[in-house]
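Work Package 3 (structural annotation) set out to generate three-dimensional models for the target panel prioritized at the project kickoff. During this period the team completed the workflow that converts sequence records into discrete structure tokens, so that structures can be stored uniformly alongside our sequence database. As a representative example, we reproduce one entry of 315 residues exactly as it appears in the project archive.
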Amino acid sequence: MVYHLEFEKQIVELEAKVMEIQSMEKGGVNLKDELARIREKADRILVQTYSKLTPEQKVQVARHPDRPHFVDYMKRLIQDFTPLAGDRFFGEDAAISGGLGRFRGQSCVIIGQEKGHDTTSRIMHNFGMAKPEGYRKAQRLMALAHQFKLPIITLVDTAGAYPGVEAEERGQSEAIAKSIESCLRAETPLVSVVIGEGGSGGAIAIAAADRVFMLEHAIYSVISPEGCASILWRSSEFAKDAARALKLTAQDLKQLGIIDAIIEEPMGGAHREPERTIDVVGDYIEKAINELGTLDGPTLKIRRRQKFLEMGHTV
């Protein structure tokens, strides 16, 4: 089943018309001129729509269920992937996946949040919301990368850390803080990409990196628009206002100096051309790792820590 966003209604109707005409042509009816006209109109409206998305519309695109997830990136970019499970303290957390592999010929550690593609996988991965054992697994993987001097790639896509009672009982805040510390201590290149949602501490726990990239229609903020609206306006109905106020788009965050670069998506969003999107993300990661690889471990750590200390600093 193809999922369409509410603001895409006119585009979807035109694309359906194109498919209808194509089926008629197969029956021997010549409608080439009409087909070209409708295609041109659909493409024009697609460009117009996606070139001026509002913050709340970008939230919808970032959450699109057909958008490529961690597992899609891992399968296309990583060869000989060996998953590593468990935190050696409590158990396994499926919301955060990670392991060892080769990225374009170079050994690496890759970590990311996986939301799942259907009901069964979403429940299994807890909708990408990790519990403490997930963040402690990430710490273990980063320590492994530090020990063997392997670059770390992290892919961020979570609404936030799991807020349940059992997570708090097992030390959710401490696990997130320690995971951020692990990012800042690693003496090896660390590259992070926000591929969908970057929600609160659940995101930055694996994104305190040397290079932080965002896909063009991804979002990254201290809280979800719905959560912000519930706190400030006592109603999630004000989520649109919250999305505008939070400055959560890639464009806002690049301007504020929170991220290093925006990765352009195919017209109409990553969900329309997932393989092309993944390849472009891979190019950005490869370039960053090659640049960072010229620096020694202590220098990387000092520069990374200084980068985050300077955020928000005013003279």
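The mean pLDDT is 91.
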